[in-house]
Amino acid sequence: MRDPGSSQKAVLAVATLTAFMMPFMMSALNLALPAIQRDFALDAVVLNWVVTAYVLAAVVALVPSGKLADIFGRKKIFVLGVLLFFLAALLLAFSQASWWLILWRVVQGIGGGMVMSTGMAMITSAFPLSERGKAIGFNVAAVYTGLSVGPIAGGYLTATFGWRSIFLVTFPLGMLVFFLSKKMIREEWAEARGESFDAAGSALLGAAFVCFMCGLSLMPTWKGGIIVLSGILLLILFVRQELRTTFPVFEVRLFRDNRVFAFSGLAALINYGATSAVSFLLSLYLQYILGLGPQAAGLILLWQPVVMALLSPLAGRLSDRVEPRIIASFGMSLTALGLLQLAFLQQDTAKGLVILALVCLGLGFALFSSPNMNAIMSSVEKRYYGVASGAVGTMRLCGNMVSMAIALVVFALFLGPEGISPRHYPALLLAIKTSFGIFAALCLGGIFFSLLRGDLRRHKTS
To answer: 259: buried, middle or exposed (CB in 10 Å: 19+, 13-18, 0-12)?
Structure first.
């Protein structure tokens, strides 16, 4: 008889390795973009698509992959996603034209969406409610470790071996995950087996996300507004489709009938929407306003993800013992406090105060993320684990888009189309502070939804 503990360890190991490697590659690649631009002589629009193609493909694939995993097996979709992601990485390393680069990034995004929607679902399936928060905490910590190590390793690899090495070094690790998943995980989870797949709903949701992302990238122009409105219309059509079909790709009734799931998901969207642009804004502040070099600025920015990585497992373990909404709401309060501190930055703010704000943000996000994820995944029936995991990933990516869109709209209002030069520094500082003020207000509103979600242990269905 197979030891269930060994299977749990195998699930946690492969899910945690992929949770580390995907954000590692994304953050490392950001450091390699200038080198890619030089090699292929890309303009700014095409270079942006090297990043955007992955995110767009991932967000479109998340929910359908989660549903397919619930129908055909979470391990099966996870393994296929790992194979797609890392084979695409190998092909990216040998790409000789920009359009191949973008194509393989799309394939990698699809694979990434499949992994994101199933990794957390497998952990939730393998671990009982009393141990789930601890396991989720380790998984979340791996994400932040990848984000912490990625920029440092990406800069070193690009400078020493070239940008292609970023994709090459991750390929062997990816194959290790592939074989470990095939060999060590014998269980399969498919509580929705026998249901049909809702292709029409998947197409509507995918089209809505494409419109949202493309529209937000064009804001605040009128074209961007029209495209975003088209996305809203498609989303309404999607909800109508899901309420009519027997086996929807996403059970929208969860938002109506499951208070813990609905409010936890909304809190996640708000939290990611309020924090995703922090590194972008602070990197501009530290380098332009305080005059620091890229390396010094990067070392300061490391404080936030390092604190997140260290404390996320503890926060997850705590959520196994204490009601998750209490811990998550306290975490969001700390996040709002950190953002409020950054809203009062000045031209001569001490670096120590910036670090203090980042530590506050890191602590707040660690206390929010793992318990909130535990609440979301533990509030649904087993047959919805894949869908719920996909919804969490969608909230995260949509929050990233919203956060960057808010920052870019504020920058457009304060700075206009002109580049950043010393005479624009006062306007730049005002734009940064205004953005942080908006994000702090968002986070304060998120505390309200976090507290109203209700108690998980009264609601639990598994």
So the answer is: middle
